[in-house]
Amino acid sequence: MATQKTVSATGNAVVADAMRQCKPDVMAAYPITPQTTIVEEFAGFVAKGRVHTEYVTVESEHSAMSACVGASAAGARVMTATSSQGLALMWEELHVASGMRLPIVMANANRALSAPINIHCDHGDAMGARDAGWVMLFAETAQEAYDNTIMATRIAENPAVLLPVMSCLDGFITTHSIDRVDVLDDESVAEFVGEYAPQNALLDIDQPVTHGAFAGLGGPFFEFKRAQRDAMERSREVISSVGAEYSELSGRPFGAVESWGMEDADVAIVVIGSTAGNVRHVARQLRAEGVKAGIVKVRVFRPFPYAELAAALSGVKAVAVLDRAESFGAEGGPLFLEVRSALYDAETRVPVAGYIYGLGGSDVRLELIERVYSDLSDIAAGTAQPGGFVYLGAR
Amino acid sequence: MKTMDKSMYEIRWHGRGGQGAVTAAKILAGAAFLSGWKGVTSAPSFGAERRGAPITASTRVASEEIRILSQVSTPDVVVVLDDSLIGVGRAAAGIQPGGVMIINTVKPVTELGVDAGIRVVTADVTGSALAAGVVVGGQPMVNTAVLGSIAAATGLVTMESVEAAIAEAFPPGPAAKNTEAARLAFECTKA
User: Fold this and answer.
1) Which of A79, A111, A172, B146 is paired with A12 by a 20 to 30 Å CA distance?
2) Do B43 and A180 touch (CB under 8 A)?
3) Which residues of chain A have a CB within 8 Å of the CB of B43?
């Protein structure tokens, strides 16, 4: 294990620090609440000479991601960070980055999309980009946000993957709360991520290549997409092996899904992000009262860990899925749709209840989680059916 | 409150934008770790930030690791950095039986308009900050001084751990002044 130092810091501060330790050649970013302090801290590192990164200040997120695409195609290790409307403004280039197979690492401070205007946490921004071809990691804590940033660099740049990675952390809740974080020493991180060896650098004049060429009717567009799908599938194995290697370095376990109390659980909640902390707290209390409550936290949303999720939920009598994002008109939120699909091939069809919660930072009080477990106990006992559309705690 | 008989204590801060409540919550978190609490979380509640607007922050300290980051609605300890916030910010809302309000004021308790059933501890935190020279842009900064009052009123953190956490948060010169402010506030805190 590497030498580590325990610090009290915000999620954004440790994400910026992880980026510094990964030594990107280029960062192009535009500030937006609640991501701002990531790029602010990083700009400070550049100004103080603590990292030798070309820091490109741009006039919008559209330009930020465009500059990232150009720099990454040129052969640089590239990072950025954004949030909400900023991510929405990058939409075009998100697809360009993944289609050109550029291993850009981006932190996303999850925040609601307008309207009405709101600066607080939900996953609507990231979920809106879930089909953009990026690997997507989610953090529960500042520690995980730090760890994910470092792992993201290795995953993105793996020659079998070469896909951009979005590393998400909950706006304000994780970005701005003070948390205790174990930080690796600079040398260990530098050694772990290694030097970036670009595969198809535009600036490699001995091996001239074209990026993003026209691939219209009769061209290889369809096959490019198939290649992207294959790369995303290959990333499963890479995520798993990078996670194992990082666990050895840090002493912290990593799984695409992480379970608590699932060995003998009757009822389980599936959740993404910081709310997992509240859910675990309630599950622990319920266990003390004799309720066999479990929790499955999803840390990797793309590629979605179908097999791991189905395995984790095998044997439970009722499942609830908490979505901090809407998919208006669908049968449930984005996570609900994935989880129910993952369970379709299971031997016994377990009832799955969907809940939308916490949109726009709506506070996730413990009693709301208690209510979900109580609903699950009723469903497991056969006295209630999952169904309807529950906006958890809406007034 | 002096005895650590609960496994978790919830603290809610009431301040105004610019008073440094978020920094205070951060330093308190550091002091709580040094005082032996294994689980500490500190979550600010932001709106559209602007100077002078009422803000709150939530801190939890626990004997085991905790990961609860919802806003504190039933606090054991309420810290009020500015007595004008008692009414405006509904500072006493949800306070637990046996809980305590720590209020920065020079007024007697009877003039503060807090329900008689609630334990109130007052301190001239602003005066402590001024006396120690903790002044930024002509304004006394009460956010470090109040940590002394929290130590005195609750015993949740020791004065030694507050001083150590301040030393970690500031360069030596400012740290000395901020420590002095916290000590003065510790001494003038009236149960």
Assistant:
1) B146
2) no
3) 172-173, 176-177
User: Hey, what domains does chain A have and what are their CATH numbers?
Assistant: 4-195+216-250 (3.40.50.970), 257-392 (3.40.50.920)
Q: How far apart are CA B155 and CA B1, in angstroms?
A: 7
Separation of alpha carbons A39 and A84, rounded Å = 15
As a whole number of Å, the end-to-end CA separation of chain B is 12
Q: Which residues of B touch A (CB under 8 A)?
A: 22, 25-26, 29-30, 33, 40-44, 46, 48, 66-71, 73
Encoding tokens for residue B106?
């020079």
Smallest Cα distance from B118 to chain A, Å = 24
B22, B40, B68: residue with CB nearest A278: B68
pLDDT band at residue B41 using 50, 70 and 90 as cut-offs: confident
Q: How far is B135 from chain A (nearest CA, A)?
A: 25
Portion 177-216 of A in contact with B at CB < 8 A: 177-180
Cβ-contact B56, B89 below 8 angstroms: yes
pLDDT score for B191: 67
Contacts of A214 (CB under 8 A, 6+ apart): none
Q: How confident is the model at residue A280 (pLDDT cuts 50, 70, 90)?
A: very high
Angstrom CA distances, A276 to A283, B5, B24, stand at: 10, 27, 27
DSSP state of A94: H
Predicted confidence (pLDDT) at residue A261 exceeds the cutoff of 50: yes
Query: Does the beta-carbon distance from B41 to A177 stay under 8 Å?
Result: yes
- Domains of chain B by start residue, with CATH: 8-188 (3.40.920.10)
Region of B94 (left: φ > 0; alpha: ψ -120 to 50; beta: rest) is left
| Length of chain B measured in residues | 191
- Quick check: B34 and B66 in contact, CB under 8 A? no
DSSP symbols for A265-319: -SEEEEE-TTHHHHHHHHHHHHHHTT--EEEEEESEEES--HHHHHHHHTT-SEE
Give the span between the Cα atoms of A75 and A208, in whole angstroms. Answer: 12
Determine the average pLDDT of the residues in B117-121: 94
Enumerate the residues of chain A whose CB falls inside 8 A of the CB of residue B41: 177-179
Reported ipTM: 0.78
Residue B43, pLDDT > 90, answer no
Shortest Cα distance, chain B CAs vs residue A279, angstroms: 9
- The DSSP call for residue A237 is H
Q: What is the greatest pairwise CA distance in chain A?
A: 70
Whole-number Å distance between alpha carbons of A277 and A299: 13
pLDDT level of residue A144 (50, 70, 90 thresholds): very high
